[in-house]
Amino acid sequence: MKKLVRYFIKGLVIFVPMALTVFIFVWAFTSFDSVFRDRLKFPYPGMGILLTVVLIFLIGFLASNFLGKRLFALVERVFTGLPLVKLLYSAVKDMIEAFAGDKKSFDKPVIATIGPGGSVKIVGFVTRESLENLGLEDHVAVYMPQSYNFAGNVLVLPKEAVKPLDIESSQAMAFVVSGGVSCGSA
């Protein structure tokens, strides 16, 4: 009986991440595809996702030249001028840029000491090295992603409580998001 339970658990550990990944990709694929097929009446499955990828490349190309930059700056001003839209747009844009944009914010992994005695340590990323605008000249902002979650917290810590880690950002993120299970090898 113990052997059967072990087989089941081992199968679960292998199956669930694979199944969840496939499910998310299939859901995203069919969602994008159905928008194009239902609204634009494309007869072939897969055309929606292909057109989405082409559209993203086209926007990137246009945003790389003078006229495109001006056009997208105008659109951005409209988005940031509308109260509720500004909140959502700015948050999403900042998060995308933090991971993939020119202003990557998660490129400084650190280990922070929390609490008296320094016995508790937490892995995070310095996102802002100067908090003078908050009147906290000797503090930094450290983003602490949560394990098994797409959320996190920003802690304001004294600079002396934060020590850089000599690892790649992707390794630190994998370590934190996996709950410390992954060693974060890239």
| Alpha-carbon Rg, integer | 22 Å
Counting structural domains, the number is: 2
Query: What percent of residues are in strands?
Result: 15-25%
Physical arrangement of strands within the biggest beta sheet: 4-3-2-1-5
Mean pLDDT: 77
Oligomeric state of shown chains: single chain
Give the uncertain stretches in residue-range form.
none
Order of helices and strands: HHHHEEEEEH
- How many β-strand stretches? 5
C-alpha geometry: flat
What is the rounded distance between the termini?
Answer: 38 Å
**SSE-based structural type:** alpha+beta
Number of helices: 5
Helix fraction bin: 40-55%
Major sheet characteristics: 5 strands, antiparallel
What does it look like?
The chain has two domains: 2-100, no CATH class; 109-177. 9% of the residues are buried. It has five helices and five strands; from the N terminus they run ααααβββββα. A five-stranded antiparallel beta sheet has the order 4-3-2-1-5, covered by helices on one side. 53% of the residues lie in helices and 17% in strands. A hairpin with a 5-residue loop joins β1 (109-114) and β2. The chain has 186 residues and is an alpha+beta fold. The model has no long low-confidence stretch (mean pLDDT 77).
